[in-house]
Amino acid sequence: MEIDKITQGVLNVIDNGTFKQEGAYNLRYNGQPLCHGDSEHIKIKSKTDKNGIDVFIDGNTKGEQVHIPVVVTASGMTDVVYNDFYIAEGAEVVIVAGCGIHNAGCDNARHDGIHSFHVGKGANVRYEEKHYGEGDGTGERILNPVTKIYMDENSVFTLDTAQIKGVDSSIRETEITMEAGAKLFVTERLMTHDKQNAVSNMEIQMNGDGSSAKIASRSVAKGQSSQTFHPKAIGNAACHAHVQCDSIIMDKAEVCSIPEINARHIDASIIHEAAIGRINNEQLIKLRTLGMTEEEAEAVIVDAFLD
Amino acid sequence: MEIDKITQGVLNVIDNGTFKQEGAYNLRYNGQPLCHGDSEHIKIKSKTDKNGIDVFIDGNTKGEQVHIPVVVTASGMTDVVYNDFYIAEGAEVVIVAGCGIHNAGCDNARHDGIHSFHVGKGANVRYEEKHYGEGDGTGERILNPVTKIYMDENSVFTLDTAQIKGVDSSIRETEITMEAGAKLFVTERLMTHDKQNAVSNMEIQMNGDGSSAKIASRSVAKGQSSQTFHPKAIGNAACHAHVQCDSIIMDKAEVCSIPEINARHIDASIIHEAAIGRINNEQLIKLRTLGMTEEEAEAVIVDAFLD
């Protein structure tokens, strides 16, 4: 199927320019499934009771990718979608999601992606999600993702989320439960500018012995934007968690970081580190001596920080 | 005035055994002022509208100590007291407070000490506060301190609090506002055991350029006790803050740490670190090879950690 230029442009940003109508994929466009494909091991079915898809990934899946991008270009639209992933024992899969809004109108455009991941024993899942907004309309671009991850024994989940730019308002809710031996890696990157507002709440319940979580959050707040982080790591068993939040503030921005660590078991070991500050002055000076303007130097540092 | 044996025993713990009826002091006993003294530079006046004292510390005070211990031995008593400190510009003073409850009865004994400190420009205050409970009664020993500190320009405040043991329930509220150049040092130490419960909320507003805060909280939770920490550092100006919370959990205890750092100014630099875990195993093994029992070794490590 032919994809229009604006949609393809958005796809190039949120899907690393790699989106193809091949293998297992599902492209959602303005609240409707536009095209989709299955593969031998991965089957995608539309839900019949509400918006969204069920994705079944069988245990023989090894290193395959599923792409499920969402594009909204209709000003005034609120698109709520429920995507559920059933990952069988032993599967190894990369899921590339992402949502881009092109809003050229004066009404708000909003997408709420509610995702659940049922991760079987020993399965290994990498989930990538990019959020992006563009368009010169005055309407807001709003993204409120909900991510629920249920990790069975010895499963591995890598959650890699990025809010690139152009998202006026975002409330992210992430809930994760972990059984014995499960390993979680979270990388969250976030950039806000102008009068944007972003909130990220995350709750990780480590219920099984030997479970471990490594959370890294990096953010840059520019303009008059504001960001609030509230990651919560709860150790109910013999487990390890390390939570790290680093933020750069610029201009008149505001960042609030409220990590919560809660140890309810003598062998729960949880560490948190957070730092908020301005851009590193020595790096700035070094780049400026190389001939860059202040703006160029800042852009290089910010890009490297969020990379 | 003669002090009875039980009261003297409690005083020895909460006042480092140094309490004397000399210089500026005020001993509060079972809800009544028992004895007090003034010095040339420090005057203590009983409030006429409610329980408590006003302490006036003049600008010529240099290195003097004020002792204001509180002892409760009456089971069933709830003692609420308001103590206000007016520290003049340039004063240098050490304030030794502390509250001990000896409860031999079956009813609860409770003390709420509500303290405010008005710290003048350039003044340097060290405030020490020890909380302690004892007595073989079944009634609870409850301490709910409220501490409000207003720091004028270039003042220095060192807040050193310790909950030693025997306190069944404690809710601590601390509020601090800081003007330009003010420097704050907080050391909080807390030990809970059995079914004790302790909550510590702290809010630091850094409003002036060049203000800085260094917060160190160390705690040990034993038995089935639970602890919750909620320190909040807010940077409204060019300021620095470093918050560190370290907790050891033992037995079936639970520790929850919810630090909040909030930067509202591009030159606000705020760092937080928190760690919760069990006692260091290598230290334990080392001490046991020196011939200590497991209990002895644990006691040495815990004492060193809280020292």
TrEMBL record, chains A, B:
Domain SUF system FeS cluster assembly SufBD core: 87-305
Gene Ontology BP terms: iron-sulfur cluster assembly
Matching Pfam families: SUFBD_core (PF01458)
InterPro entries named in the record: Fe-S_cluster_assembly_SufBD, SUF_FeS_clus_asmbl_SufBD_core, SUF_FeS_clus_asmbl_SufBD_sf
PANTHER family assigned: FES CLUSTER ASSEMBLY PROTEIN SUF (PTHR30508), UPF0051 PROTEIN MJ0034 (PTHR30508:SF6)
Protein name (record): SUF system FeS cluster assembly SufBD core domain-containing protein
Lineage: Bacteria, Bacillati, Bacillota, Clostridia, Lachnospirales
